[in-house]
Amino acid sequence: MSTLNRHSQPIAEPELLNMTKGSDSSSLVHLNIGGKKFCTTVDTLTHREPDSMLAAMFSGRHTVCEDPRKGYVFVDRDGKHFRHILNWLRDGIVPMLTDSEYLELLREAEYYQLLGLIDGINAVLNKRKKEDDEFNTELTRTDIIKCIQSERVRFRGVNLSGLNLSKLDLSFVDFSYACLRNVFFSRANLQCAKFRDVDAEGSIFHNATLRECEFTGANLHGALLAGANLQSANLQDACLVDCSFFEADLRSAHLQNADLTNANLENAILEGANLKLSWWRWAPLTQNKIASED
Where is the BTB domain (predicted)? Predict the structure, then answer.
């Protein structure tokens, strides 16, 4: 059925489309979401979230309006994130987005009543909040730069997790008992710095100067110390599991009772290092100078 406009041209009216008529789960569906066009199948729209609005629209329980000239079903919503909704319906994977984008997608998921996607987004946001709380650093790089101008610098027990402290002169600084997870110390001068009992899991000390540093009892699980200068450093009782000491200089270093499980010591210089009672199962030792165990 059509009507006439003022120029006597017929205007096509939306046709009622019943998905039960001659359609199956593989039938193509053309959608216009706020001006953005998508093509999918009935199965995608109905299988993963059977109680959603989209499933109700295209499962045959309701009749929807279709533009007869273009063949699209129009939905008056923002189409910006609808591709993420379709991908969720296809594979069940929550996309990687910023927090603000997640909130926008969450509004759309709530509108379409996609309960699984809502739960998935909330799980990601809660995980990020927990991680942010854990890495809630108390100082910034700028704060650190100001502090190291002082004659004696101590960051004992301070949470500096996630900071970029690369290339700074942090020699003689006392970091004892601090939380230093995922800190970036690459090429920093840390000579004689104290890291006693720190939690520095996953931190980066690539090519850093760590001569005579104290790491007694430190947690350095998964830390990168490749190319670092650790001459005469004290790493007694430290957790060095999964650490990389590739081409590091460990001459005369103290590694008694250190846990070197799965540590990479390839091409490391261990001349004069004390490894007495250290645990270094599976640690690669290719082409490095053998240490003393006396």
Answer: 27-129
Residue carrying structure tokens 């009749």:
63
Complete DSSP assignment for 103-159: HHHHHHHHHTT-HHHHHHHHHHHHHHHHHHHHT--SS-HHHHHHHTTSSS-B-TT-B
Same domain, 143 and 120: no
Same domain (yes/no): 165, 63 = no
* Same domain assignment for residues 126 and 141: no
225 in Cβ contact with 204 (< 8 Å): no
For residues 149 and 242, state if they share a domain.
Answer: yes
Same domain, 279 and 146: yes
Residue 144 · residue 165 · CB < 8 Å? yes
111-136 pLDDT tens trace: 999 999 999 999 998 887 776 666 66
CB neighbourhood size of 216 (10 A): 19
Task: Quickly tell me which residue has 């984008």 as its tokens.
Answer: 101
Residue 6: predicted pLDDT: 44
Report the predicted TM-score, pTM, of the whole model to 2 decimal places.
Answer: 0.53
From CA 159, how far away is CA 205, in angstroms rounded?
A: 17
Provide the number of structural domains found in the chain.
2
Please state, in angstroms and as integers, the Cα–Cα distance from residue 217 to each residue in 177, 196, 239, following that order: 10, 6, 7
What confidence category does residue 94 fall into, taking pLDDT thresholds of 50, 70 and 90? very high
Domain's final residue, options 72, 106, 131: 131
Q: Is residue 220 predicted with pLDDT exceeding 80?
A: yes
- Domain span at residue 294 reads 136-294
Domain end residue (candidates: 85, 104, 131): 131
- What does the angle CA 247 – CA 251 – CA 252 come to, to the nearest 5 degrees? 155
Of the pLDDT bands very low, low, confident and very high (cuts 50, 70, 90), residue 16 is very low
